[in-house]
Write a structure and sequence with these properties.
With 78 residues, the chain is of the alpha/beta class. It is 27% helix and 17% strand. It is globular and about 30 Å long.
């Protein structure tokens, strides 16, 4: 299959349905999660996990900017 793999825009997020909480280990900037969350109907929340406090703060800001009102619960740890 040429160019295989799923892309967010091709409906890959559809099976998740409403009420899903996205957990992202190694959240980094949160850009990938923010993109995925724009394609989920009614996500329940986002839980960025990272060993870096600054990374979880950045992920929280990034996602909050794209999904205002979404419950975001960052966690620092490994």
């Amino acid at each position: 299959m040429r160019g295989g793999g799923l892309r967010v825009g091709d409906g890959a997020a559809d099976p998740a349905g409403a009420g899903v909480e996205l957990v992202e280990p190694g959240a980094g900037s949160g850009e990938k999660a923010a993109l995925l969350l724009t394609h989920l109907l009614e996500p329940a929340g986002y839980l960025p996990l990272d060993i870096s406090p600054s990374a979880t703060e950045l992920a929280q800001r990034t996602v909050a900017r794209r999904r205002p009102g979404l419950v975001i619960e960052p966690r620092v740890g490994d």
